[in-house]
Design goal:
The chain is mainly α. Helices cover 48% and strands 11% of the residues.
């Protein structure tokens, strides 16, 4: 559900100092100017907010998509969670409950790459490692699922005997 941001408070803030102007004619002239400047000011506010939304989107794009829309009198901020989002990863990234400490030795280059990835994801290296480990464990569960049933009439006689199953690509080279 989009969140609506009204731009009217910007114009209210511009009108507040008008009470200091004693001349009615001059005050009306400035009010006319403020109304004439409404569209360019709304556009400037939109551009500024769009830059902010883009910066945020770059940090959270792995899990969310953030968009900014324009409508007269306001802006719409849309935040959509990407499919397969962070709910499962979040379960493992929190430090609630029982937490164990583990020390691992990894090559310095791998550590540097992991820290760079964590920085790009906007998380700590610890959180990044936990999420990566959780994904790896989840993928192992998927990979070790039982194989589909053997088609009727097919008998597997083992890896070396006649009737062994073959797998791979069917077809020739394109060259």
């Amino acid at each position: 559900m989009p969140m609506e941001l009204r731009t009217e408070p910007v114009f209210d803030a511009l009108r507040q100092p008008l009470t200091l102007i004693e001349s009615d004619e001059r005050r009306r002239g400035i009010e006319t100017y403020i109304e004439a400047a409404r569209t360019p000011l709304e556009r400037a506010v939109y551009d500024l907010m769009a830059q902010m939304a883009q910066a945020i989107d770059e940090k959270v794009s792995a899990h969310y998509r953030i968009r900014l829309g324009y409508q007269p009198g306001g802006l719409l901020v849309e935040i959509d969670e990407k499919p397969g989002g962070s709910s499962e990863d979040a379960q493992w990234s929190t430090a609630e409950g029982d937490v164990e400490k583990i020390t691992i030795r990894i090559p310095a280059e791998l550590k540097d790459l992991a820290q760079q990835a964590a920085s790009k994801a906007g998380t700590s290296a610890n959180t990044w490692f936990i999420k990566a480990l959780a994904r790896a464990v989840r993928n192992i569960d998927v990979q070790t699922a039982p194989p589909p049933p053997t088609p009727r009439g097919f008998r597997d006689k083992g890896p070396h005997g006649r009737g062994s199953r073959l797998s791979g690509w069917v077809g020739g080279d394109d060259e």
